[in-house]
Design goal:
about 230 residues, single chain, elongated, two-stranded antiparallel ribbon, mainly alpha
Length: about 230
């Protein structure tokens, strides 16, 4: 049996990290290039899917629901003739997320380009949440800063949003509500990022599942070796 076949059969330690038998023959350069290509494609695809009309509102995986506190009283509000306001708020929340997501593209791509070899190895062998965790760690804080003003502009005209903030902030001060849910704009920003990272992970899984279909030689080489 040739050396490459032996290595593939047994797996190996690469720079102190155990990699699967199928991928152990890959060089660090190939593995890193493959992961970068997959994540960049996944990030750009996710932004394209979400950053358009109904990207959030029409996708049950990421559609942003009313905060729990508001859901609890939505039945009463609807019964008192405020159904339209409830629906208006939910639509505006999702439209706000759709408007904000395109701002993420540059930061996401830069995070991928700045990825270390160690990051790439962990992502190559990591679990289902590794991609989401990578992007959240690298981009959540700066993207929150970028998203929040856009979300504020999209929701400030909805009267119920201001009313919710007034009531929710008081509830939070008494410990009846989580701080992150006490402001509709912060809540939407957080949910928009959760949805974005989820969809990046989904797109990356598609690439891993069908690397040949991407038409990319490096993706075929790296992820094809894992099958």
């Amino acid at each position: 049996m040739k050396r490459r076949e032996l290595v593939k059969a047994a797996g190996a330690m690469v720079a102190g990290v155990w990699v699967p038998a199928q991928a152990s023959w890959l060089s660090e350069t190939d593995a890193t290039a493959g992961i970068r290509a997959a994540l960049e494609r996944g990030a750009v695809a996710a932004v394209g899917l979400l950053g358009k009309t109904d990207g959030f509102l029409g996708n049950p995986k990421v559609r942003i629901p009313l905060p729990d506190f508001l859901q609890d009283v939505s039945g009463f509000l609807k019964a008192t003739g405020q159904r339209k306001r409830i629906e208006e708020l939910e639509v505006s929340m999702n439209r706000a997320a759709e408007a904000a997501v395109p701002e993420a593209k540059a930061l996401l791509v830069n995070a991928v380009k700045a990825m270390s070899v160690e990051d790439a190895k962990q992502l190559l062998t990591g679990g289902d949440n590794s991609v989401k965790q990578f992007f959240a760690t690298k981009t959540r804080e700066p993207l929150s800063v970028k998203f929040l003003p856009i979300v504020q502009r999209a929701t400030e005209k909805v009267k119920l949003a201001a009313r919710y903030n007034a009531v929710a902030s008081k509830a939070a001060s008494f410990g009846l509500l989580k701080e992150e849910n006490a402001n509709i704009q912060s809540y939407v920003t957080g949910k928009a990022l959760d949805g974005l990272y989820l969809m990046i992970g989904e797109e990356e899984k598609k690439i891993r599942a069908d690397p040949v279909g991407t038409g990319s030689a490096i993706l075929r080489k790296v992820f094809g070796s894992l099958k």
